[in-house]
## 1
Amino acid sequence: MLALILGLVLFLGIHSVRVFAEDWRTARRAAMGENAWKGMYSVVSAVGLGLIIWGYGLARQAPVVLWDTPTWTRHFAALLTLLSFVLLVAAYVPRNALKARLQHPMILGVKVWALSHLLANNTLADLLLFGGFLVWAILCFRSARRREPLATAQAPSAAATSLTVAIGVGAWAVFAMWGHAALIGIRPFVAVTPTS
């Protein structure tokens, strides 16, 4: 569990500098130079992400169950995750209505992803991982909205919005049917048989 916690501290910590220490971040970037700052940021992020993956994998070998999860939560989580994929894609497709309306769809996508996984999972490692990302996303979204008030962007395009939804749904389907099992080892749509 220590590796998971350390990974979360590193990964979410470096991604929270702008939320909690904007002046320090600006000073460090100026002192180090843009490329050195980005290099350090990338290394800390990669180490943190690696520790999260490793630590979560270790924690799953001896899970500490905190509560019972009804079967319906898995189906609801799948629906929420579909929404999170569309929001993530919306961050990158220009002139889509979701980005124009929400301003920070990627952070909202992380928030929805974390919430969906908190609903469907029930161990201490899940609470730390997905709870940590949910708290980070809430704080980060509030900070981003304060820092960058709602801007008037180009008028959204119906074609761009349709493309955003189509790519998000397609990516979600591929990940839900194949990618989740390949990368995480769990098939979201296959019933879990309890072990005695």
Note: The radius of gyration is 18 Å.
## 2
Amino acid sequence: MPADPSDQPVPTVPPEETDKSKHRPIKSFVVRPGRMGTGQTRALAELGPRFVLPFKQELVKPAELFGRSAPVVFEIGFGMGAATAQIATTLPDVDFIGCEVHEPGVGALLKLIGEQKLENIRIFQHDAVEVLEHMIQPGSLAGMHIFFPDPWHKKRHNKRRLIQAPFVAKLVNYLAPGGYLHCATDWEPYAQQMLDVLSAEPALQNTAEAGSAGFAEKPAYRPLTKFENRGIKLGHGVWDLVFKRR
């Protein structure tokens, strides 16, 4: 079953509608409308100047952003931010940089940051690919999270899926040796595609145990979303993939 868009906005690659479009740069999202609640609007106004970082074509210095030296995890498409906030609470010694283009999601995460007094999250309201290319030092990330990207169920739309070999090869460049890439999906055909693509990347090694069919046990730090809990009760599956850079 596809992920509920109210729980997880969906990073993806835009459609290739013409031959010309095939030469466009990789994007990590499709713009979708959304309404801002009062709390989200207030959080964006009050906390945005501190926690939302402007996109610039210069490398960020995490030690200056967070005021400390700590492992940095980069998240592509954090949706409404509930999982991001919970992971940041669970792992207080890790700093998180999240990318989300949808303003309601940014506002929702800022609201959680304020309510939970979180200091280990910073946000880019910008395309994750451009942030990586221009602002993240290659080989510097301890981890990357991509949770429940759009599965694009129809076969003719499969090419729009985010997890494709060229994109993964790009992501690997930003992981430190031993750094991990954690993907999760609730659509089994996409899970298999993810497994095939990640397994074929020579710079990555699967952390799943033998006999697991290549899929990992859900790491303790990743919380269950509301949609995921509903799906589990109905017998739907969720597949986690955790690969490390060699």
Note: The chain is about 30% helix and 15% strand.
## 3
Amino acid sequence: MSDPKHDVASPVKAANAAEEAGQGGAPHRRIKSFVTRAGRMGTGQIRALQELAPRYRIAHQPSLVDWDAVFGRQAPRVLEIGFGMGDATAKIAALKPELDFIGCEVHEAGVGALLQRIDEAQLPNLRIVQHDAVEVLADMISKGSLHGVHLFFPDPWHKKRHHKRRLVQPPFIADLVPYLAPGGYFHAATDWEPYAQQMLEVLSAEPRLQNTADGFAPKPDYRPLTKFEARGLRLGHGVWDLLFRRRD
């Protein structure tokens, strides 16, 4: 790309291309923000995809997007990686009307559910990209443009042999940080303590990030308590929040 802020030769993009081309001996595992799962679609979700997607869903494209034009204004912007069924996403967007939110999710049931919530709550500050967030960042977002990035309850990949599939790894964070504006934040939450510890180690080791707390952070007021999380807390399960900011 001609835009100097948009480096298509990032390590993530290069690794993806090398694997897909089958070059250079043992292929690198392609970094992805999701795992493909099958799921049933409700009639309301199907209808939302048919009727609301043209208004609120942005197609993935291999070039930068004019997000000011998409939202019809200039405002701080937050990207969410993997919003699931979108309940927390919609609640945060309603609570923070001064911010614009870009939600990335690959599963149609979740996209349909969030489209319904956008329409019901009339949330003009929320759009959806139904695509891998890693590629959305690399292709559609200008570097230094994000006020924040949310990653709530990502797949913890419990088994040791699957830990390499966890999203929060040093190469991913190294690629992510340049998309944050100076002072921009990365907020992750998980209910799996070993993954929380790994996230804390990875994020603390990134010199361009600064922890906002002494270890794990208190749950910010804007992050709603999900039904899944509330049930876990009643059973004595922990939840860990991490909130780091990009150094100026």
Note: The longest strand covers residues 180-190.
## 4
Amino acid sequence: MTTKEQIVQDWLPRYTGTPLEEFGQYILLTNFVNYVTMFAARFEVEVKGNGRAMQTATANNITIINFGMGSAMAATVMDLLSAIEPKAVLFLGKCGGLKKTLVGDLILPIAAIRGEGTSDDYMPTEIPALPSFRLQSTVSASIAKHEMDYWTGTVYTTNRRIWEHDEKFKEYLRDIRAMAIDMETATIFIVGFANSIPHGALLLVSDNPLVPEGVKTEESDKKVTAQYVKKHLDIGIDALTELAESGASVKHLRFE
């Protein structure tokens, strides 16, 4: 294999156990396999890729993919998805809430701060990490239909997983006025742009790591999953269903 096209066309099925022709044109991304199993149960479809790096399920022209955790895997899945040229990719991620956010709140980011480093391999650091406006607008409408509200603003994306003890870094997060922190969003936005893939994100606040009592634990994460994950997933499915049924283009930028 000598070209990127040849590599991703071979590797996307290899990573997921899913043939190229079985992927939907609309993609949900997640870091957690339970999102995939919940999607599969809702539509009574098979989960594929068990025992592989990524798991998938497909129904109604939508494929959900658990790609793992971190910016390196986020870049990998966005590169691999260039094999099928999806019409839209929506990331359903969990994040640490900053500022006044509460556990269970939704954040619809208008931009991401590139603190992870991975995206520097794809675009110069001066290029902002932005979502596709049309996709975020559709997600906003989907949230309203579910009679919920959301925060908007920037999310800081980092490669660093264990930082909650670092007071200097926490003060930096306060200084930059970010609404949330995660490990994938900026990478998905930049690598999506590099691959001409329309992309967006809807983040679920799973903890409030700036205060000691807000740091995520196994027990607190179970509560988040039990109380909020289904609604998070339903909003994402409904947003992509709306796009699929309307046939509207999500691209709002010229990719050159």
Note: The two ends are 25 Å apart (CA to CA).
